[in-house]
Design a protein that fits this description.
Blueprint lengths: L1 H17 L16 H10 L12 E2 L2 E2 L9 E4 L1 H7 L5 H4 L5 E4 L8 E4 L8 E5 L2 E2 L20 E8 L13 E7 L2 H4 L6 E10 L4 E11 L5 E10 L18 E14 L2 E16 L2 E16 L8 E17 L15 E20 L2 E20 L13 E16 L2 E20 L10 E20 L5 E12 L3 H4 L11 E2 L8 E15 L7 E14 L2 E5 L4 E6 L3 E14 L3 E12 L17 E11 L4 E10 L2 E3 L11 E3 L2 E11 L4 E8 L26 E9 L1
Amino acid sequence: MAGTAVALLSAFSATAAKAQAAATPATAAASGETDEELKKKAAKGESSFLSPIVSTTSQDGWKNPFTTPAPISSASSDEIDLFGQRKLGDVLRAMPGTFSRDSIQNPGLSVNIRGLEGSGRVNTMIDGVRQNFRFTGHEAQGFAYVDPALVAGVDVTRGAVSTTGGAGALAGSANIRTIGVDDIIKDGKNWGALATLTWGSNDVGFSEMAAGALRSTGGAAAIAGAISYSNPDNYKNGDGTEVPGTFQNLLSGLVKGEFKPTDDLTVNLGAVLYDNDFAANSYNQKLKSNTYTAGVNWDPDSELVNVAAHVYYNDVKMEYGDSIYAGTPNGAFYTSNGRVIEDKGIGFDIANTSNFSLGNVAVTTVNGVEYFHDTVDSYNTVYPNKAGGVNPSGKSSVGGVFSETTFKYNIVDVIAGLRYDFYTLNGTYDAVAGNPAGVPVGRQELDQSDGRFDPRLTIAINPYDWLQPYITYSQSFRPPTIQETMLGGSHPGGGTSFSPNPYLDPEIQKGWEFGANITRNGLLTEKDMFRLKANYYYKNVENYITGVNLGGGKSYFINHPGSSVLQGFELETAYDAGFAFGSIAYTHAESDLPSQVNGLGAVSFMPDNVLTVTGGARFLEQRLTVGGRVNYVSQTEVGNGAGQPNTSYTDWAPYTLVDAFANYKFDNGLDLSANVTNLFDKTYEPALSGNTGSALKDTGRGRTFLLTAKMQF
């Protein structure tokens, strides 16, 4: 691949040499632009580079976070290209109220919202498809796997979701949108190509992505494809010490098709493929994740009918190879090579949007249903009697029927949502004598189901065209998982045994949100734009599921007695004057959630305070953008790993990281970017990183230079 990289880089350099200073400047922020105008600019790629105002496309259609009375945030492709090339979680950590599990070795993404993560508490999706793959083993109880090079945008909703994607999502949802036809083909053309070539220091090496798309004359059909490859080696931390197990060998790709048989009917097909080799959880691993989608949108000439329906299939397979400790004195304890954990999921959703009036009241109502079913198989191809270790097999499903209606009258908006969600769990497990849950001894069958109604009500006031305060009350729930109810087996090397608990109740969250949006144009200059979004939340979580260690080497999951309180403040601001821009994201989060047991979940907590400040300036008719980003993370509490609240907590030190970047846009579609992460080469332990291991394993990447050439034509 290195030869290909050099050839591509040479071609990019030659193209750049031909570009002249007569380039058309990027469109500056303009006074009075509407959401629809901003949406069109984003789709055409006409917005200024790294504009903090323009957002991406979400599963439910384009939403501007600064005009939506709900705690939502979006990341654009520019931000992902600059700050998320190595880890998409770095982009999420720059959103208020949002964090990520930063596993040093595992490349998967685990989204944390307001301190809640793992086991489906956050519904993480790729192109609207749930990613329910989970395993038990000193990690976050759930990862989604996607190549950042193929990501076009990320949309996060914090809190209850009363439409598609909200079933069983206790804390909220995150949808990762991969590139499609409109991201590749420029406006007015019937074909397009997109290629990026990146070189990075600190053993990042070369990474490449190439994409192409074709659209038929008249636009009745279109197809797109992309492929990406990267193979970074172990990086060095700020002290110059190599951090083992941080290499990857990632090959990914996608294919998408769009068809319009009639003017009011659109059909979409897609496949996103991921194949990665890495070392985590003491073993070399191979991870394959394949996501397939099919969607139909019927939008006839009627305000009462706009139907969107999707079916999808997801297959994630993790295979354990040799232990990284093979041949060492401790190698005999690691006998899980050959383990395979596979999750096959299939689901669908269908919703209709209607618009009508009741007198002077404008009404928009969304009504639909969603369902997803997982089949989990855990086995061992080398030691069949070991099966999946502590990872059980089984079947689960989650679904819901939902309705959300928005009433607009004068300056008042009322959004009333109600959903009925349900779940099922099926499988077999073994219970031994003296198990802490009191399960009868022997092979047992699990056949569990339950459901509940969850309301959501928002009242927003629009006293001025620039101000929108709102208040929300909501409820949500999260069912127990296969891994929590049918846990079993023992820890390698002995000393700890794990027991099932089929009596677990679903987690329930109830609480309030108080927020406000401010949108001002022409604040300091004639054509500048200012946006502010602030939100305070107070939530009670009942029946929180956590692991406990009872002593004597016995561990299992329980419902934590009583309720836990989550509360915090979230702030997101953005300013763009064309020649200069800046944004601030701040989170203050408090919780009294108990720690998980070491090995059954993340024992560290979301930091109390997280601040991200981004700023920059544009020169040469806005073709050149130069700026930087500062990330501050306060001290992070780490639990004792025994699942007992308020005991033996330790603090990981706070840290501040500084990044710098520059981008130059040529008129022929070529972009050249340079950025430096961890500019001052700090040695630090990322918050929400590993549970166990030496301090070396938990240290983050040292200073890294990245050079990127991106060509679109």
